[in-house]
Design a protein that fits this description.
alpha+beta; 5 strands; 20% strand; globular
Length: 83
């Protein structure tokens, strides 16, 4: 299995978020956490970030409220209309 690791500059370009926003969202469990690459180096698994982006797109387009899944990543809330 092959995983691509994204470093911070590439992550910022991909998401359009600043460093401080990324780390604030990680603290709030609203963004995938980085993995340790040894020493003081960290990176993000590309698949996790791409899934987060897809969830943001779905939530934005659906207009539904957002909630966190078990990994702390926000996902669109399912709305059931019982009328």
């Amino acid at each position: 299995m092959s995983h691509k690791i994204l470093r911070l500059p590439e992550l910022k370009d991909l998401t359009g978020l600043s460093r401080s926003t990324i780390y604030a969202r990680i603290s709030n469990e609203d963004f995938p956490a980085p993995i340790s690459l040894g020493g003081r180096a960290v990176g993000w698994i590309e698949e996790d970030v791409m899934n987060w982006i897809e969830q943001q797109i779905e939530a934005s387009r659906s207009g539904n409220s957002k909630r966190k899944n078990e990994k702390g990543v926000i996902k669109p809330q399912t709305v059931i209309d019982n009328t």
